[in-house]
Write a structure and sequence with these properties.
Layout lengths: L1 H20 L4 E2 L14 E4 L1 E4 L2 E4 L5 E9 L5 E10 L2 E6 L2 E5 L6 E10 L3 E9 L5 E11 L6 H29 L1
Helix pairs in contact: 1-2
Length: about 180
């Protein structure tokens, strides 16, 4: 009976850890609506914040903004943002361009699957205001699924399995000794 309780407990622990790793989507960006101006972002050049949005550069100027964030290794990252501009803009994920070269008058809500998280990733928006303005707002990166357990988690899980196996073996030896 005791062994069955141990096995049931081990099964529940496995289910709990698996469900924790595949939890629902979580936001990984800080201050994506720019309500706290540039808090959480690295402003690389020519930026200003106006009415809770990021304005890229001065008229005819270039600007860029980036943020490095922590995520789960292997989780799928999806980027969404609002963009209104009269110039061009590029979006980079870990230094690689994932979207860009928008022409004058491009605006709307955009969404891209960036790929798998690596534990620490960087998103960057680069643009030039030609002839008047670019506005970026409502930046969101959601992470879903993924998550590779840390070595300590694997060790704890392995210890639990070994303990359950040892208990089963000891119980069988005890039953064999009583039967003899």
């Amino acid at each position: 009976m005791r062994i069955q309780a141990l096995m049931a407990g081990a099964a529940m622990a496995i289910v709990a850890s698996a469900s924790a790793m595949s939890a629902s989507a979580a936001e990984v960006i800080t201050n994506g609506d720019f309500s706290a101006n540039g808090t959480g972002w690295t402003v690389n050049s020519g930026a200003n914040f106006f009415n809770g949005a990021y304005n890229e550069g001065s008229v005819e100027g270039e600007g860029s903004i980036s943020q490095t964030f922590t995520d789960l290794v292997g989780g799928v990252l999806t980027l969404e943002y609002d963009w209104n501009g009269s110039g061009y803009q590029y979006v980079q994920f870990n230094g690689s361009t994932v979207a860009g070269s928008f022409t004058e008058g491009t605006s709307g809500h955009f969404s891209f699957v960036l790929g798998a998280g690596t534990g620490s990733d960087t998103i960057a928006f680069l643009g030039r205001n030609v002839p008047a303005f670019n506005v970026l707002d409502n930046v969101s990166i959601m992470q879903s699924g993924g998550g590779i357990p840390e070595p300590a988690t694997w060790g704890l899980m392995l210890t639990g399995f070994l303990g359950a196996g040892a208990a089963i073996r000891a119980n069988r030896r005890r039953q064999a000794a009583l039967a003899a």
